[in-house]
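User: What would this chain look like folded?
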Amino acid sequence: MIIPYGKQYLDETDIEAVVGVLKGNWLTQGPMVEAFETALAHYCGAKFAIAVSNGTVALHLACLAAGVGSGDEGITSPITFIASANCLVYAGAKPVFADIQSNTWNISPNEIEKQITSKTKVIIPVHFAGLPCDMTAIRNIADRHQLIVIEDACHALGARIGSQRIGGTDTADLVCFSFHPVKHITTGEGGAILTDNEEYANKIRMLRHHGITKDPAVLTRIDGPWYYEAHITGYNARLSDIQCAIGCSQLKKIDTFLLRRKEIAERYLRELKNMPGLSFQSVQPVFDHAYHLFVAHFDPARYDRLGMFEYLKKNGIAPQIHYVPAHHQPVMKKYAGKQGSLPNADHYYEGCISLPMFPSLTTDQQSKVIDTIKAYCHGSSIC
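Assistant: Here's the prediction, encoded as structure tokens.
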């Protein structure tokens, strides 16, 4: 059996939650949506949570709620899934990439500051692999330049900065999550936007439902209780009651999932830390890593990354690369700076491999991953 890099965990309670919805009256736009939103907001410490169809949609609608549009620029990380940049393009804006820190692989506050222009509207920091960015520094930069902060927290449900969980909005105006199957909890596909700003929350609710409102305070007329109006151009970005039922069930297990991920990460670090040329994310004590991913960086001057990748596959292990940098993508070339302008991101990409990381990874499976890496190292006379 192939050991994947990531995998969902579902049990009988999740199945029972779905069956309960299927036996009820609401498959979508029903009470489970609000129940999931309430539970998620409470868990993260935010006033409002709005469930949407996926994490990419969450980022897109957050940009629209923040007023991002044509002529604007937004700054984000190059080491991320391309959705972190695409959301700006969807809104008519230009994505701008700021280099990462060489030790955390998160966007560098100093590099953010260098990229700010009169057109900059938002900063979209990405909590890569589940490690929080330096949000205090980023918030300070945003406040000095009167910018909006949209956290891409799609990797970071359950992570903390001090005592504050990511998703609480002390340092961000809007926070976006994904519930794809490889994330900390899953709804199949799904996402959410968290905010303390009621105006943003109301606008996002309209955007996810075709721009429609029934609020008497804004309707231009009222023909009867059925009456509604579309006041903005919106989308069908809803999450169903079926999916939200899974989300409610999964959220009850989040602390168990996080604990197991940390156990797996600690073992990788313990058993691989002395390998020459191998490095990992640097985690400061104030940050609590959620370990959506466990990335090992193999020094490209010492290792054949492709050789390592293929050797793992040959031995029944399916690693992954996170990510082909966004500024390398052909669709982003017109936005990216000159070649070599993001040296830390380029160096990171040349040696990164994501190792299997998911709560149901067994001790024996993890042993196989570790032993296979060591075998390749010794067989190549690297160690």
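The first helix runs from residue 12 to 22. If you want, I can go into more detail on any region.
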